[in-house]
Amino acid sequence: MNATDTLSNTVNICSNITVPSGKTLVIQPNSTVKFYSGKYLLVQGKLTANGSASQHIKFTSAATTPSRGNWEYIRIDNYASSSYLNYCDIEYAKTGIWVNGANANPTIQHCDIKECSQYGVRLENNTSATTFKYNNLHHNSVYGVFLMTSSPLMFNISATNNDNSGLFCSNSSPKLGSIETMEADQSKFSNNTQHGIWCTGSPGSSPIIYRNTKTYPNGGYVRLTGNGGNGIRANSGSQPHLGESSSSPGYNSICDNGSVEIWNGNSSYSITAKYNWWGSESGPPPDSCNNSLLLARPYLNYDPGNPAKAGFTPPLASDDTSHISRLQRGEIYFAAGELEQALSIFEQIISDNPKSEDAKYALSDIVLCYQELDWQDQIVPYLDKVAEQYPKQDIGYWILGHGAFGPVVGDRGEI
Amino acid sequence: MEAIFKWLKAVLGVLLCFFSLNFDHSIYGQNYFASGIFGYDEPFPGHALNSNEQALIRDTHGNFIYGLIDTSLVDDFIAFCNTNNLKTCIENDPTSIPGSGPFYPSPYKNDNTSLWHYICLNAASAIDCTLIRQLITNIHATYPSEPGLGAILVAHQGRTHEADHWPYIQYACSLIHANYGDNVRSLVIDNAGGWTLADLENFFRTVDSLNCFQHEFYPFHVGSQPSYPPTDSTIFNTDAFQINLIDNQLIDSYNLVRQALLNSGNKYTRWELIYQAHREWNRTSAHFWRRPTQAELWLHAFLALSRGAKGVHAYVYRTYNASSLRSFGLVDNGTTRQKINTPAYNKPYDNITQLYDHLATLGSAILDDTVHTAFTWTGTRYKYLKSITGDSTDGPSPPNTHRTIEVCVFKPRPSNNNYERFMLINRRCNRDSSGFWVNAYPQNIDVTLADSMPAGTYRIKDLYSNEFYVTSDKIFRQIKILAGRGRVFELKRLL
Hints:
The structure holds two protein chains of two kinds.
Chain A: E1 4-7, E2 10-13, E3 17-19, E4 24-27, E5 32-35, E6 41-43, E7 46-50, E8 57-61, E9 71-77, E10 84-86, E11 88-91, E12 93-100, E13 107-109, E14 112-114, E15 119-124, E16 131-133, E17 136-138, E18 143-148, E19 153-155, E20 158-160, E21 165-170, E22 175-177, E23 187-188, E24 197-200, E25 222-225, E26 232-234, E27 253-255, E28 262-264, E29 271-272, E30 294-295, H1 326-335, H2 339-352, H3 357-372, H4 376-389, H5 394-402
Helix pairs in contact in A: 1-2, 1-3, 2-3, 4-5
Chain B: H1 2-16, E1 26-27, E2 30-31, E3 34-38, H2 51-58, E4 64-66, H3 74-83, E5 87-92, E6 103-104, H4 129-142, E7 149-156, H5 166-180, E8 185-190, H6 197-206, E9 212-216, E10 221-222, H7 232-236, H8 243-264, E11 270-276, E12 279-282, E13 287-289, H9 294-306, E14 311-315, E15 320-321, E16 325-328, H10 348-365, E17 371-376, E18 385-389, E19 405-410, E20 419-426, E21 443-449, E22 457-462, E23 468-471, E24 475-481, E25 486-494
Parallel strand pairs in B: 3-4, 3-14, 4-5, 5-7, 7-8, 8-9, 9-11, 11-14
Antiparallel strand pairs in B: 1-2, 5-6, 10-13, 12-13, 12-16, 15-16, 17-19, 18-21, 19-20, 20-25, 21-24, 22-23, 22-25
Helix pairs in contact in B: 1-5, 4-5, 6-8, 8-9
């Protein structure tokens, strides 16, 4: 027995195999690992399957005529060392890769996972330690990715053509986005039989699907298109964030889904989905959501993955404020974390012209600033103060009529 | 005669004290598992191999080439071997002594004498050590270090069986070794089936400086001369598939050689097989050999490997028709790879090529492995092997006769004692339908390790394909082995 054992070429897994703690199993590039019926690979030590673009590693069924679910899974357990799966093609398992435990921290990238009878990848009780990017999960019987109490960073994930949903989040709040942002390379949860992303659980799931140069520089740019059900479905208690403001825009493409683009199972709070492309230059259609609790404006009038398209306006550079409005400048300060500067500008906008459109947005941004500053207990008093200060102005009516969120911000139209 | 023996033994004793008794399987620093083609035709001496035929033999991907060559072209032929990483054997005609030649890279001399010209003359005429020394000295003076010269033929059937001839053979072998080390082998060709175990054992004990003993064995035959042109049914009839009888003959034959070597204590001589790849009608002796099927051909070779053979040689290359012999070789008319009435699964040339491609990898991998034991699996446990089970179903005809699996266990190498090596051979070569040359059945074999093996994860690795099987319950499942094929596995504990 060695600390490290290496297998290559064709590897037949005749029985359940465990890589014990302290041991490393290396699968060489260009290998094919064939699992016999019902068998699995359990990793408690370390698995290194480091393929390359030209030399993938295949994990598949040993059956002459393979079918979904022929074998069980590759499971990376809690306290396993930093396993590495790169350019691996996984097929015909029940679950391609199952990461289980808060301390499992594998890197899974450039993997193609398909034809699984349950999930392409299952992350369970796993924090953001798992690196999960550039993976393709398709044609699986249930979900491309199943997250259970797991909140990984997931970039450039393609979860398409799965029989249920591309991504299922149960009490999970992953951060989704794209490092490469061209349409073909974007993250996509598309063409699944049910939903692109399904958020559920109790208390719920709140994935972050927007871009912020400071906090989520690779977020957003996600395609939620062509699914049979919803682009994203949020059951009660779940609140996905698909674009918060101009400083945290979604830059997602949400369109062409069979049912409403966004299904909000909540009755008391909205889903924010600002600065997204809804398949039309005229913005989100009236039936974008099953209820009115969707903040979809401002919206993009172009597909963010297709900059060659007419009308494209590149995002503003945060250090170039010479030609932009006062509101945009305030939002840039906000994005940069200079919250007091931002607050000062927003308050000035309201003070100067409380009847203006910008005042409404400034008020919304002030609420966000308060949240960032952890001043939640001051939000309502502040809004009361504004309402009292401008009782005869539109802004005051909105606050009094609709509460602090959602309808405070009206339709501004395209940016 | 007794005085001569005493003198020879005294001389050889001096020579042998300089020799290693453990054979090095490398030649000029390269592993050398032999895979050869015998170019031969009737009537004696036939015609010399032309350049086209030489190229065709080379393209079988073998590494040893026999064949009659015009005496004026021997140098060119050796150069051809040098260039193409081939080896040939050479002989010399004792009647040409004194002198430096001619030499023949063939067991036959192109002079229509029908004599077998090797160094230890087959004829009963007198031969002495002086002549042998002159012959070998002349060969060495002419070809001191040609990589294409792989062997010097010392004896070929005939008087090889006669004990009073053995000291001369031993003397010739010793001199070849003294001149060339292990880079050029001394070679004896015979059919071990004509020997008793005791005689062959004594031969190996006496001739223990011999590098290579080539054992010729042709088991595939029919009872009477078929009509011509042959058809499948007339060639093969029911006898063709009595492989259960034939492969027992193969095993008996190979066991004889291996056992004789073991009993003799000779650890220097290695044996190689001259196998039957051709069809031959010997009208004089009324023996009618048929071509083996592809599966039988592989079985022929792999069973030899399981008994320690370190090379295989096909016989015969060329198709010819003489008064006494009609042979259908690997090619027609000496050059054409289109076969005489050859269905798809019996293309002799292509079969050989596939086999040699395979052995180029596998033969080298097991070259330094020594057979510890070899046996037909009958359910008896062997050390680390608890059970070996093949498929539970058979082909339609004949049923339940060929479900056998041959096992060969190699000795662990001293330098790598953390693994074991063994070979499994699927002996089931019967056809899988009413057609004659359709595929024979593969077997899917389960290998269970002994209970005494420590718990853990084990893997076996196929030394040809590098395919792994991994298990943690001691059962390697569904190891597919095609009909007649063997697979050599390296067993190792991991994780």
